[in-house]
Design a protein that fits this description.
The protein has 3 helices and 5 strands; from the N terminus they run E-E-E-E-H-H-H-E. By secondary structure, the chain is an alpha+beta fold. It has a single domain (9-89), classed as Arc Repressor Mutant, subunit A, CATH 1.10.10.1150. The strands form 2 sheets. The chain has a 3-stranded antiparallel β-sheet, with helices on one face. A two-stranded antiparallel ribbon has the order 1-5. Helix 2 packs across helix 3. The chain is globular.
């Protein structure tokens, strides 16, 4: 379960590389590479900037002119996927 107001971080062995409109998330420990499209890249940048899920949704809704509820659902889905792969954590260990 994602706490909406909680800050998220990339795991300590994760490197974020943004190239053009895409992002590569590299998990160094097991050499996993995860590719994100432009929207996913923007979400990753905001997570990397220390924003909470609700803040990410608010920023993206404003930037894309989309309904906040729909954006928040998409953000939560991506965060859940990144978390399941060990890329995003609640705290840096």
């Amino acid at each position: 379960m994602i706490e909406q107001s909680g800050r998220l971080f990339f795991a300590s062995d994760v490197v974020l590389q943004v190239v053009d409109d895409e992002a590569l998330v590299l998990k160094l420990q097991d050499e996993t590479v995860f590719s994100l499209n432009d929207t996913g890249a923007r979400i990753a940048q905001l997570i990397d900037g220390g924003y909470a899920v609700e803040e990410v949704a608010h920023i993206l809704a404003r930037e894309y002119g989309a309904p906040r509820a729909a954006v928040e659902s998409e953000v939560k889905g991506l965060v859940q996927l990144l978390r399941s792969k060990g890329l995003v954590v609640d705290r840096i260990a």
